Amino acid sequence: MNVMREEDIVTGGSMSVEEATDRAADLMSRYGHLQGVSLIEPMVHEEFNGKITMTSSFGTEAAALLALVAEVDANLPIIFLDTRKLFGETHKYRETLVDQLGLTNIKIMRPDEEKLKADDPNGMLFASDVAKCCYLRKVEPLQRALTGYDAWLTGRKRFHGGERDALPAIETAGTRIKINPLAGYARGDIDDIFEHRALPRHPLEAEGFLSIGCMPCTDRVDPNSTDVRAGRWAGQDKTECGIHYII
């Protein structure tokens, strides 16, 4: 387990926006019909070998994609954003999954301490400016962590709804390519991965947390709810933390 330092961050290798757009279109034409391991394998070993990473929240559904990635390359760099506001159970769950799946290259990225001291000295910014809090604790750290990578794997799925309804398997993210191997998976498909691979569930799922982020902005949800992300920023006009807007 590594805490990512400035010297650990890969440098160079970014495409221009135009190059990324053309590359995404080409990849979509050749691989857009694939999903799961069938999509992950060529992205990791052929198209972006050494220039691809993955982000994981180690939340309720995270083990599904982590398990598939582990089958392809257990040493793939996996970026974990430690916002300093996560549930303790999430940290323990991360350790459990890392051990069970044999993951060997977890990069823990944390907020810039000086920026936190300047803009969130008492740790309560989430109560007054949730967007800025997400930026300081998630977006900016991920921007640094992605430096040098041309592509990244995400666990987003269309059944999450909202802005994810029409999520493609491969998309452009500014100067990078974003790969969504589980985009077309249904909720039942995710459950099947857990069952067939005997994956442990996040300990907070049994307590009603269907999607888990930072403690202050995560609530319990009716287990029968069709909106698994209803507990994220509940009651606010916000559905995404902002990391998927990074360009």
Overview in brief:
With 247 residues, the protein is an alpha/beta fold. The chain is built from seven helices and seven strands.
Protein architecture, described:
With 247 residues, this protein is an alpha/beta fold. The protein is built from seven helices and seven strands; from the N terminus they run βααβαβαβααβββα. The radius of gyration is 17 Å and the shape is globular. The model is unreliable at 4-13 (pLDDT under 50).
List the SSEs and their pairings.
Elements: E1 2-3, H1 17-31, H2 37-47, E2 52-55, H3 62-72, E3 78-81, H4 88-101, E4 106-109, H5 113-119, H6 130-145, E5 151-153, E6 170-173, E7 176-179, H7 187-196
Parallel strand pairs: 1-4, 2-3, 2-5, 3-4, 5-7
Antiparallel strand pairs: 6-7
Order of helices and strands: EHHEHEHEHHEEEH
Radius of gyration: 17 Å
Count of DSSP H/I helices:
7
What is the oligomer described by this structure?
single chain
Give the fraction of residues assigned to helices: 25-40%
**Mean pLDDT, all residues:** 87
Unreliable residue runs:
4-13
How are the strands of the largest sheet arranged?
1-4-3-2-5-7-6
* Biggest sheet descriptor: 7 strands, mixed
How far is the N terminus from the C terminus?
Answer: 27 Å
Number of strands: 7
Structural class: alpha/beta
Q: Percent of residues in beta strands?
A: 5-15%
Q: Given the C-alpha coordinates, what overall shape results? A: globular
Primary descriptors:
247 residues; single chain; 10% strand; seven-stranded mixed β-sheet; alpha/beta; 7 helices; 7 strands
